[in-house]
């Protein structure tokens, strides 16, 4: 008998080409993490998200995910609002006009530094938009103490709070497995004949769907 578990297909096909997505993952249980992150990235690309618009950051463990997601979201707004001059720290290229340092009364001049191509500063792939969604990926495997329960509950509540406080979808990609094999199967790398299913694929689909819907809802557009 086939399982009834799993999400139904989305009601529409979503185009991720205009989206910018962040992945924040822990480094505990690296074998499983690597498979999940790979599955997530592959799905995002299949949904049209450009590789240059996928940013991957890591933290030590799952407990650090909520803070990291919050900081990544706020930092992307800083990036999007920054000008080329902001990101270059106010340096001037190819000009004799000095700039004054905030930490020293002496003028700072970079007039001797040639600009790339000789025509002015060039910034490759300067971000122009904040993140439309963040995918938090972690792997918690129950051990002999209550550590598993405390971390699972704390991280779950904190990630929910991040998305409610910021208005940016945070996809819950934290596996809470009772055994090593459960974790491996949920990353599609089980040791048995049935390798399981890589949940990173589901998280990639959810990120594109929620990011697209959030944009639409923010504009007051709803399905008829």
Automatic annotation (TrEMBL):
The name this protein goes by in its record: 6,7-dimethyl-8-ribityllumazine synthase
Enzyme class: transferase
Region annotation Disordered: where it falls in the sequence: 98-123
A Pfam family the protein falls into: DMRL_synthase
Pathway: Cofactor biosynthesis; riboflavin biosynthesis; riboflavin from 2-hydroxy-3-oxobutyl phosphate and 5-amino-6-(D-ribitylamino)uracil: step 1/2
Organism superkingdom: Eukaryota
Annotated HAMAP family: Lumazine_synth (MF_00178)
One cellular component (GO) term of this entry: riboflavin synthase complex
Gene3D superfamilies hit by this protein: Lumazine/riboflavin synthase
Keyword match Transferase: yes
Job description of the protein: Catalyzes the formation of 6,7-dimethyl-8-ribityllumazine by condensation of 5-amino-6-(D-ribitylamino)uracil with 3,4-dihydroxy-2-butanone 4-phosphate. This is the penultimate step in the biosynthesis of riboflavin.
Catalytic activities: (2S)-2-hydroxy-3-oxobutyl phosphate + 5-amino-6-(D-ribitylamino)uracil = 6,7-dimethyl-8-(1-D-ribityl)lumazine + phosphate + 2 H2O + H(+)
Gene Ontology annotations of biological process type: riboflavin biosynthetic process
Entry keywords, A to Z: Riboflavin biosynthesis, Transferase
UniProt key word Transferase: yes
UniProt record similarity statement: Belongs to the DMRL synthase family.
Species assigned in the record: Meripilus lineatus
Molecular functions per Gene Ontology: 6,7-dimethyl-8-ribityllumazine synthase activity
